[in-house]
Structures are given as C-alpha cells and as structure tokens.
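Run log // design_07
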C-alpha cells in the first residue's frame, strides 16, 4: 500500500485540456477540459451522441484531436500508449480465438512475462467465473462472455490508465459487481480509471467524481460527496435538459 500511495503522490494522473474534435461541420467535442487523479474513478456521463465515445478514443490515442492536449503523468498519451487500456462499448474478439488465447495475446503485446500472464489469467478466470468456457472459441460466446474476457484483458495488463466505455452491457449482476470491485482495487493501487456509463444509479455508488457532457461540451463536474442525497439520474436530467417521454396515452384510444 505504501508503494501505491507513493505512486499516486508522485504522478499527475490524466489531464485533458481544450480538447476539440470536428467531423466536417459537426463539432463532436467542443473545448473539453478536466482531470482525473491517480487513485480516482471518474464517470463521464451524457446522452447518446453527446461526445463521450469520441472523447474516450481521443484520450486513448485512437483518434487524433483537432486541437487540445491529453497527457498522462505529464506525457502526451501518444507516447505512453503501453500504459493505457481501452475497452470499447462494442468489444469483439476474433471468433477463432479462445478467450484464453485472446488474453495471452493481450499480455504478450504488453511485453509481460509468460508466467505473469498465466497467473493473471487464472485470477481473472476465477473472479469472473470463466473456467467452464474460457478455452472455447469465442465465436460461441454471448455478449456478456465477450465482455468478461475483454474487461479481463484490461485487468491482465494492469495499466496506469483504464478507459472503459459502457462496461456493464451484457454483464449479469454478479459479474457487474465483480467488475466494480476490480476497478476499486485498481484505483487503490494508484491507477487512473475513466468510465463512460448510462447506468447512473450504479455509477453514483462506485464512482468518486463525475463529469456531464452534452453536445460535446462539459457542463459540470462534481464529486460523489456533492450528491448528498440527490439522485444522480434526476441531476443528469436537470443539467442536460433531457427527460423521459410522457407515455400515459400511448396505448389509449385505438
């Protein structure tokens, strides 16, 4: 734990400054700035099309911003990609690979020792309950099974920065709770964790800081303590100016 605290103190974490991304005449991300310290779990929230996924891809170095800077511990993310794990919102695995083969390949890309890879795969297999099917070809997997394997790939890598887009899609309640426990353990070891999710009630429990983005702009950031009994979902509706539709009369009168 002492090493983890030293690691968090000595490094700056994630810094996003004046990030802009254009697609033709459309501004997908507009002058976005925020930071996430080491040991923090930050949730980026927003309606569909708000710019969340584009932001996560720029932070991961997969998309080049039109302007702005993203750094990890003071270094441009383009120079430290080996320290970043990105899990997309629609993960895929080559269907002829088994989950174990995918995880071994992930570990080798990171330059990990084979024994370390084997040990970490075993741990992930146990906590995500993948023992019965991890050696089957992934073409037979359900979405939830693929999600467990791809999330395990991030945890096997043990990066300095986790960037995870909609992690809970397809996960049953035990796997979802396991994911959050793994995230909290990674943060306790000094990692930066950035998550985009629509599961607001769960995010309000497990995430420590939040940023709400709408139409490419960051509207507000706040901490878990600032909720102080407020419902995150209602706060989300208020800040973004969105609300669920009125449907009382939809099935009446026909």
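design_07 sequence
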């Amino acid at each position: 734990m002492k090493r983890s605290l030293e690691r968090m103190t000595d490094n700056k974490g994630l810094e996003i400054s004046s990030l802009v991304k254009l697609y033709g005449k459309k501004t997908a991300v507009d002058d976005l700035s925020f930071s996430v310290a080491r040991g923090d779990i930050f949730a980026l929230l927003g309606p569909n099309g708000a710019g969340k996924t584009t932001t996560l891809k720029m932070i991961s170095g997969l998309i080049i911003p039109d302007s702005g800077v993203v750094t990890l511990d003071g270094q441009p993310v383009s120079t430290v990609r080996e320290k970043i794990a990105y899990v997309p919102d629609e993960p895929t695995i080559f269907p002829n690979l088994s989950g174990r083969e995918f995880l071994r390949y992930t570990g080798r890309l990171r330059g990990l020792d084979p024994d370390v890879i084997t040990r970490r795969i075993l741990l992930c297999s146990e906590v995500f309950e993948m023992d019965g099917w991890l050696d089957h070809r992934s073409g037979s997997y359900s979405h939830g099974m693929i999600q467990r394997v791809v999330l395990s790939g991030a945890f096997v890598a043990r990066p300095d920065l986790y960037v995870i887009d909609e992690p809970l899609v397809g996960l049953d309640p035990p796997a979802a709770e396991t994911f959050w426990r793994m995230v909290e353990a990674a943060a306790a070891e000094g990692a930066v964790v950035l998550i985009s999710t629509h599961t607001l009630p769960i995010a309000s429990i497990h995430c420590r800081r939040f940023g709400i983005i709408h139409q490419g702009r960051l509207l507000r950031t706040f901490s878990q303590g600032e909720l102080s009994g407020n419902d995150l979902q209602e706060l989300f509706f208020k800040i973004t100016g969105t609300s669920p539709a009125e449907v009382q009369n939809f099935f009446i009168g026909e």
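The mean pLDDT is 92.
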